[in-house]
Structure formats: structure tokens, C-alpha cells
Description:
One of its GO terms (molecular function) is cysteine-type endopeptidase activity. Residues 2-79, 92-156 form the DED domain. Helices cover 36% and strands 14% of the residues. It has 462 residues and is α/β, with parallel strands linked by helices. The chain folds into 3 domains: 2-90, Death Domain, Fas (Orthogonal Bundle); 94-174, Death Domain, Fas; 215-445, Rossmann fold, CATH 3.40.50. The protein has a 6-stranded mixed beta sheet with strand order 4-3-5-9-11-14, sandwiched between helices. Helix 7 packs antiparallel against helix 12 (164-174), helix 13 packs parallel to helix 16 (397-409) and helix 16 crosses helix 17. The protein is elongated.
Amino acid sequence: VEFQRILxxxxxxxxxxxxxxxxxxxxxxxxxDLGSVTAGRDLFSLLQNRGLLTSYDPSLLIxxxxxxxxxxxxxxxxxxxxxxxxxxRISPYRRLLYELQENMSSDDLKNFKFLLIETLPRKKLQQxxxxxxxxxxxxKINFLDADNLDNLEKLIGDICPWLNKLISQxxxxxxxxxxxxxxxxxxxxxSLDLSVTIEAVQKLEEYNMKGDWRGFCLIINNYKFSCPxxxxxxxxxxxxxxxxxxxxxxxxxxxxxxxxxxxQMLQELEQLRTRDHSQADxxxxxxxxxxxxxxxxxxxGSKVALRELMGPLSGHCCPLLSQKPKLFFIQACQGTKHxxxxxxxxxxxxxxxxxxxxxxxxxxxxxxxxxxxxxxxxALATVPLYTSYRDKVKGTWFIQSLCDSLLxxxxxxxxxxxxxxxxxxxxxxxxxxxxxxxxxxxPGFTLRKRVVFPVPKxxxxx
Length: 462
């Protein structure tokens, strides 16, 4: 409620023109018709519904107020950036257009419209609009975009030539208008030349993500173990609950199974293989269990190699998933070395020589744990020779950090590998009560494109 009061206060202190500027600055983030936005609360509601603006992370609001030079509101309302989240979401291109508007007079706007008489419909030009609105109309007919500033540069040159320096600076910093360049790389021996073509594009190619349904998400959660040297995994229910909530929010159809042995786990993967993936964008499999060097344990102590988990979903075995991302998230230790901890449990073998709860150490992951087939991601909770940790009350460091990061960064349009890098950073900061235990996850992949989940239309409900 307090955050809503702050947003209402911001609305009261902004002029209608400023609200319009904020709305147009957010056009790339919202990607919808913003004609219905007539007040600050309308814009704030849209941003909140997309998960882009929360009491936990008001950084977008702070950034917007700073862009329109209302930083005093940030100070007066005591808004603070979240210290662990990046603060820039408005693209440099939108900032450039706003800066151009701020340096143009009403007469400049009239002259701009006059030059566009043969380009835009006269009905549009007769409407009362700001320069940002005019730029948006130019974008609608593909007369202007971030990679094509030539038309804008010519118009600005006729009316306000001194502003072309802003466009030139943008091009120099962000590569607008550059198609490609070649760089020669020479080996240390001097005997080999490599010609590398560098495409100057704003982002790499992305996997296709269409519609509201993302695909299937299988979650295998092993809690109760019959094998005497594998302890029950207290706290794993917290991980399962978070994973279900997050992946349903992302548009996946989730299925959870508990306490599987080797045969049952492989059967679940086989059933997942045979499902109809024709309309799916990708597939996800999360496994929460104990592990060993290069694989995971069933509840009876049986072993499953990581490559066996991925095999059924390869393009050869499941053609409907060919060229689609196959994403695995594995919470399990991969070794037998232990250390004493308090309220933390390992996902590895128990060691009778340990007085308290043992923490296993991950062993090296074999090179064939990621198959040669394309489009796989295998995100492991830990790197070779290090342990992974599970809090009995909160769940595992890796899965909880993964869920938190997806919730915070998917609405920002951040790709999955960048999110996992953020997860690495967050997990690396965690430690046990004595400050002696550390962990770092390890993602491995044969992905060919960026995995960018569409921003969910509804905020998370869990």
C-alpha cells in the first residue's frame, strides 16, 4: 500500500506532458497501444502488471524520473535502487529521441511537420502532438528506427543542424547504420590468419517464442531416500513450489513427480519425449536430488548419468523438439567430499565419519555430459570440486536464486544465459552461518541462439 501511495504522489507531481513523455519512453518495454494512458496511474499499472515496476525494485521509475530531469522527486520520495539489480532499462535510442525533443522548440516542431507533409498522413500532422509522438508516427511507417537514423538526421539537419552531433554520437557508441566489418586475427605463431566477420547488430538471433504457451516443464523432486547413505532432502519442497510457480508464470505446463528411482526417472523422460511438442517453444526439465560424479541418484541409490537424462529429448529421438531449446536445471552435488555445516544439507553421499550433516564436494563433470546435439542447456548447481548447499527452511541456494533472478529479469527482456550469470553472482555471495562454505553454479550449453522468455502478461501470483 505504501508503494502505491508513492506512485499516486508521483502522478500528482507530474504534468500531463511529463506523463506523456514517460509513456513514450516505455513504448519498447510495453509493446502495445498506449493511447489509453491518460494519467500516471495508467502507466504505472501497466508496468506493474508486466512485473517491470515493484516495491522491491522501483529502479525503472527512478530511471524515468532521472531522464525527464525530475531527480528531486527521487530524493523527496526516498526512492532507492535495488543494490543487486541493473538500473538501466530505457534504451539509448529512446533516450536519444527524448534528448532531441528537449532541445527543439514549438516552431521547430511545426517545421518538422511541414517537412513530413508528403510522408505522414495530413490528418496525423494536424493533430496536437509532441515531438516524441511525431517520432512514434515515423516509426509506424518504418521511416525511423534505431538502425535507420538517416531520415531523422536529414530532417534534423534542415531544422536544427547543431543537434546532429547527438545522432552522430549515438551512431558511434551503438553502431547504428553499420552493417559489418572484418577483423584479421593472427595466431601467436604468425602462421594462421583468421577472418572474422562482426555483425553490428543490437542483439543476437533469438529462439522463436510465440503465443501464451511455452511448453512442458517436468520437475523431478527426490526427497525420501531408501538408500542408507543418502539422507532425506529436507527443504526440497520449497524448491519444488518455487519452480512450479515461476515456470507456470512463464507460460509452461508443469508436471511434478516425487521420489523416483533410476527406472522411474528415465520413464518420466521417455513420457516427456512422446508428448506433443509441435506447438511448444521449448522444454524444461528440473531435477532435485542427490548426485555423484557426472550424474544423479534415484531414491534407491541407483545412478543416472546426465547424458542419459538428455538423450530422449535430442533432435534425433524427439524431432518435434529439433531446433528448440531443451533446458535442464540440476540441483545435485557431484562428489563425496564433506565438510561440517549447521542447518545445511548436502545433495551428495552421506559420510559416516562426519559428526554432523555432511556436505559433499562436486567432482569433475565429464566432457560428454553435454551431448553434441545442438540447443541444449545444462545448468548445474555447482562446479567441479565444490559443494552445493540446501537450507532446510528456505531450499537450495541455486534453485532459490534461479527463481528470484527469473522473476526479476525476465520482465526486463534479459536472456537466459545472462540471467544464469546473475545467478552465479548471487550464489557466490552466499555463505553458511560461519562464513566458511561457498558455492558457484555452472551452466553448460550448446545453444545456437539467445533464449529470451516473453514478458508474462500477468504478474506472479505466488
